[in-house]
């Protein structure tokens, strides 16, 4: 990608984020009111799994700071 195009894209993205941020600032909630989304279900339906590409598994495990044979060992927010 041309550096000019990258710069233009960065500027447009920044303007869009600022516009969105300003729109969020104008949303007023009553004291104690929280904003959340109500859903009928908060879990996806389980299906039959697909066979994993073993090279993908190896790359993911090698990329992890700690792992055993089949699992990534990680603390929340540390990896």
In short:
The protein is 42% helix and 0% strand. The protein has helices at residues 3-25, 54-63.
* Rg, alpha carbons: 22 Å
Query: What is the H-and-E element order?
Result: HH
Q: What is the rounded distance between the termini?
A: 30 Å
Mean pLDDT, rounded to whole units?
84
- How much helicity do the residues have? 40-55%
Number of helical runs?
A: 2
What overall form do the CA principal axes indicate? extended
The portion of residues forming beta strands comes to under 5%
Compute the number of strand runs: 0
Q: Structural class, judged by helices and strands?
A: mainly alpha
| Parts with pLDDT < 50 across at least 5 consecutive residues | none
Question: Which sheet architecture does the biggest sheet show?
Answer: none
Features:
79 residues, 2 helices, mainly alpha, 0% strand, 42% helix
What secondary-structure arrangement, pairings included, does this model have?
Layout: H1 3-25, H2 54-63
Structure, described:
The chain has helices at residues 3-25, 54-63. The relative contact order is 0.06. It is extended, with a radius of gyration of 22 Å. Helix content is 42%, strand content 0%. It is built from two helices and no strands. It is mainly α.
């Amino acid at each position: 990608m041309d550096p000019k195009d990258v710069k233009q894209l960065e500027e447009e993205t920044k303007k869009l984020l600022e516009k969105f941020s300003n729109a969020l600032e104008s949303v007023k909630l009553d004291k104690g009111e929280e904003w959340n989304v109500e859903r009928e279900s908060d879990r996806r339906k389980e299906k039959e799994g697909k066979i994993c590409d073993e090279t993908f598994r190896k790359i993911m495990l090698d990329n992890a700071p700690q792992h055993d044979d089949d699992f990534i060992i990680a603390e929340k927010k540390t990896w």
